[in-house]
Amino acid sequence: MSVPLISIVREQRTEYKWSLICGPKLLHSKFGQQDVSACLQSAGEVTPGDQQMVEIMYRQVHMGTHLIKDLVCNADSLATHISETYAALIADKPEISASASVAN
């Protein structure tokens, strides 16, 4: 079985959308979340119970594979890590920011 993927995109400055995908199938999606932490918590609550890990993409950049329990228990610290990692990546590679803003 493939590892589920949570894809988080920023729709507006303070509005995010997440999608939970497993293989080719969209399992859940929710928009209107206020921040990355809320996306992680919400997605973690609906991730299939037989899974222990989940891949995370933020604004089309792969952020790694994480334990599902961390999405719910440590969402704030994981969200901070994701945001800081993304900021560091786009500082070094402006083309990432340009392509992400076009896609989002």
Q: Uncertain regions: pLDDT < 50 for 5+ in a row?
A: none
Number of helices: 4
Strand % is 35-45%
Calculate Rg over CA atoms. Answer: 13 Å
What's the helix-strand series?
A: EEEHEEHHH
By DSSP, the count of extended strands is 5
How do the strands of the widest beta sheet line up side by side? Answer: 3-2-1-4-5
Report the principal-axis shape.
globular
Cα-to-Cα separation, first versus last residue:
29 Å
Share of helix, binned: 40-55%
Structural class by sheet pairing and helices: alpha+beta
Overall mean pLDDT stands at 87
Let me know the largest β-sheet. Answer: 5 strands, mixed
Task: Give a quick set of tags describing it.
5-stranded mixed β-sheet, 104 residues, alpha+beta, 4 helices
What does this structure look like?
The protein is α+β, with helices and mostly antiparallel strands and 104 residues long. It has a five-stranded mixed beta sheet. Helix 1 packs across helix 3 and helix 3 packs across helix 4.
What does this entry show, briefly?
The chain is 43% helix and 37% strand. By secondary structure, it is of the alpha+beta class.
Write the layout of secondary structure elements.
Layout: E1 5-12, E2 15-22, E3 25-33, H1 36-46, E4 53-58, E5 61-67, H2 68-73, H3 75-92, H4 94-103
